[in-house]
Every structure is written in C-alpha cells, then in structure tokens.
Design a protein that fits this description.
Blueprint (H helix, E strand, L loop, with lengths): L2 H7 L27 E2 L13 E2 L2 E8 L7 H10 L3 E7 L2 H13 L7 E5 L3 H6 L7 H7 L5 H6 L1 E2 L2 E2 L2 E2 L1 E2 L3 E5 H6 L15 H13 L4 E5 L5 H10 L6 E2 L5 E2 L4 H15 L12 H6 L3 E6 L3 H8 L4 E5 L10 E2 L3 E5 L6 H12 L2 H7 L4 E2 L2 H12 L3 H16 L1 E2 L7 H16 L4 H16 L5
Parallel strand pairs: 1-4, 3-4, 3-5, 11-14, 16-19
Antiparallel strand pairs: 2-3, 5-17, 6-7, 8-17, 9-18, 10-14, 10-15, 12-13
Length: 449
C-alpha cells in the first residue's frame, strides 16, 4: 500500500516510509478460549439452523485472533443492533485456511463471516469462496486507506474489507549496546541503519557478552523476509502479468539471502529456533537486536527484563528501505443466508470510525480516523512509544511493500519458507534459491492452464 496516500488520509502529508501490516501479518497465535465456540470438526456446519430465531439473526464469525480481540466491537454493535447477534468460532491460525476451505468447499451455509489473510484473498476469490463487496467499497472511499482497499481486491472486485495493517521496527537492547560501546541507533524514521552496520554492531555486542547479536520475530517467514530482497532490489520474487513466474534467483534475492545465510553461519543469529521462541530471546535480555513488529512491544514491556529502544527497520547499503505490511481483513461467505446483516457488521467494524477503533486491539487500523487515534494513543504512552508512532507512520507512508496478489501465493509462501529455513541452517543461498525457483514454477503451472 502506498504510504504517501495513507499519510494524506491520516491528516497530514508525510514524506516517509510505510508501516507494514500485520499480513501480517502481525503475529497472531490464536488461543482458543473457553468462552468461544471452537471448531473441532469439518462437519461443524451441517445443521439445518439458518441462524435466525424469534426475529433475531445470529451471524457466525470464524476467526484466528486472540480471545477478546472482537469482544468490544461485538458488544457495541449488538447494543446498537439488537436483532443481530455475533457468534465467534475460533480456530488456530495454522488451521484457519484449511477449515474455511473445507467448509466452504461443501457450500456449508453456517459460516457468515471469516478472517481473510490478505495475501490469500486471490486464491479464495478465484475459488468462489468470497462474496463481492463492491457496495461496501463505495462506502469506504475516503475513509479507508485506498491501498488497503486495493490489496483486498481481485479482478477489480472488492472481496473483503481490510481491518488492519502492520509494520516493522528494529528493537535494540540499550544495556548490551552500551556495554559494547556501540552507539544506539537513531530513532529518526528517515535514517535507518544498514543491515551491514547492524551485523557489525551485533558482533561487537556479542564480543562484549551478548548471547545473540540479531534475530527476527518471524524467522524464515516470507512476510518478514520478503523486504530483505526488496531492499536489495530483487522485487517480490514473482514476475509476469499475473505474477505466476518465479523470480528468486536475481541479483537482489541472491545478495539478500547470501547475507541472511552468513549471519546464521557466523553465529550472529541463532539456529534451531522457531518464530514462537524468538521474542523471548530478546525479552530475556540476551539479544542485541530484534527485528519485529509493534505488537512485540507489549510482551517486552510485560517481561520488564530488557531496557530497549526502537529504530526504523534497516535497509541494505545502497538499497531502498522496505518494510512488511498488510494484515487481516473480513470477508463474507457466498453461501451465507444473512449477507445483509453480515455487511452491516463489517461496515461497522471497518468503515465506521468508532467500530474500527474498537476493533483495533493491538493492531494498526486502516480506517483513517481510527489510525489517527491509534497513533495519538501510542504517543501518549511516553517517549519510546512516540518514537514508535513516528516510525510506523513514516514507514506506512514510504517503505511498506505488500506481498504479491496472486492465486499462487500459498504455493510461493510455502516453498520459500522451506528455502529460508534451509539457507539459515547451512545450504548455500544461490543453490537453494535456484531449487526454489524451479519448485515455484512447477507449482504455478496449474494456474496457467
């Protein structure tokens, strides 16, 4: 999404970078609460109940968010719309897409609304699993970042309404850098460190006692690592009119992941860990630099072990700053019997400024008034959070890069995530990227027939 447009919508023109979503995707490890109905079987929707009773319509909202994320917006909506009730069904993030595909593949009418991970929207739309929402798009014009709307379209139709976006920061351990006599990075959004300088500083911190020099929040995941290649001039890894041809062997991808390989090979970053473990490596005070999203700050603050600062996400020397972006949106099943009621709820949670603010949780909203409220609330928490807000606003306006919108995205992501892991664990980047390039092209052939 273009941060420049977002900056204009937020009330002032910002000449900076974009903050990139959630699609983050911000880390969403959905925990299933006892108060939420859990999907435990693919046949969950086989009932004859159409969700209506005594003049009240009940909408089933399938999502993969933390318990409590939507409680406030649902309570507010139901109070204003007493004939519509929202029933949540929570599934773990890793099971969401297969659950939705299984149920909608059988035209199960029991799902009314569901979470749509934005890079997967094209695949769902192409399979007929999303109701077009062009009427809601008209309502959203001028109220939601136009690039957030664009990323949720396919073949010029609006197929979901965006809720959130995401961005990336560089967290640093003040004590470890001071001990190594390494100057703290600037918090100026327009003055990011280079990855090369981060590497050198991380090595100095290790020499002075830090266990780890650098780690990523979502290690080995396309969401967070695509910007490495983008910063080095490699693009998203796909080319062609429909982005159905692999392009992960160009000079930019090779440079970025030869460096990625080296930081693990040289012990700057630790091997043998998964994304669920990485935040604790910084929160416990053992790591000098942590590349992650704004959502990580809550866990670091709760732990209270590490005194940290924030800086803009790094870029390669001579390259352009690039940050992950996009996040979650909400779609409507074409098999729902309550589409009008579902649209009413989506309109409230994404277009209405009050509803969008209530839906925010710890995420960055794309509704322009809710976005301004988010930044103001963040800034009011203190100087460190004021710096974070400035970095986020700058990044969203200048540097965020969306994941490619293509029906083959899932094939690309799964292939590259395995390649990233292999490169991190010792395989030479040029060889593994060449293998991934071939694998992607074979996987994408089915979409060109």
């Amino acid at each position: 999404m273009s941060a420049r447009t977002f900056g204009r919508l937020s009330g002032k023109l910002v000449m900076r970078r974009d903050r990139a979503p959630a699609k983050f995707r911000g880390r969403r490890f959905a925990l299933v609460a006892a108060s939420v109905t859990v999907l435990v079987a693919a046949g969950c929707g086989g009932s004859d109940d159409d969700g209506s009773s005594g003049g009240t319509t009940t909408l089933t909202f399938v999502n993969a968010q933390d318990p409590g994320t939507f409680d406030k917006v649902i309570a507010s909506f139901e109070a204003a719309n007493p004939t519509i009730k929202i029933k949540q069904q929570a599934v773990p993030f890793d099971d969401l897409n297969t659950t939705v595909q299984s149920r909608l593949g059988s035209k199960d009418p029991s799902i009314d609304l569901y979470d749509v991970d934005e890079p997967r929207l094209a695949a769902f739309a192409a399979r007929g699993f999303l109701e077009p929402l062009d009427d809601l798009r008209q309502q959203a014009e001028g109220k939601i970042d136009p690039n957030a709307l664009k990323i949720t379209t396919y073949n010029d139709k609006q197929y979901a309404m965006p809720r959130w976006t995401s961005s990336q920061l560089l967290y640093f351990n003040k004590d470890l850098l001071a001990k190594a006599k390494v100057p703290a990075p600037s918090s100026d959004p327009a003055s990011p460190m280079t990855w090369e300088d981060v590497t050198a500083a991380a090595k100095k911190a290790q020499a002075a006692g830090a266990k780890n020099g650098l780690i990523w929040d979502q290690v080995d995941r396309y969401y967070q690592l695509q910007p490495l290649a983008e910063s080095a001039g490699g693009g998203p890894g796909l080319k062609g009119d429909k982005l159905l041809e692999a392009d992960v062997t160009n000079a930019g991808w090779t440079r970025a992941f030869t460096w990625y390989h080296s930081v693990f090979q040289e012990g700057v970053a630790p091997r043998g860990i998964n994304p669920e473990q990485t935040p604790s490596l910084f929160a416990n005070g053992e790591t000098a630099f942590f590349a992650g999203g704004p959502w990580n700050s809550a866990a670091f603050d709760k732990d209270k072990t590490v005194d940290y600062g924030v800086a803009p996400a790094p870029a390669f020397a001579g390259g352009r700053p690039a940050t992950s972006t996009d996040s979650w949106s909400t779609g409507i099943s074409p098999f729902s019997k309550h589409k009008d009621a579902a649209k009413k709820f989506i309109s409230y949670m994404t277009i209405d400024p009050t509803g969008a603010t209530e839906t925010t949780s710890n995420n960055i909203p794309v509704q322009k008034d809710a976005f301004r409220t988010y930044l103001d609330t963040l800034s009011a928490k203190g100087e460190r959070y004021k710096q974070m807000a400035d970095i986020i606003e700058y990044a969203l306006a200048n540097t965020s890069v969306s994941r490619p919108v293509t029906v083959g995205y899932v094939d690309v992501e799964s292939t590259m995530n395995k390649a990233f892991a292999d490169i991190r664990n010792g395989t030479a980047a040029p060889d593994r990227l060449a293998q991934a390039n071939d694998e992607i092209n074979r996987a994408l052939e089915k979409y060109s027939r």
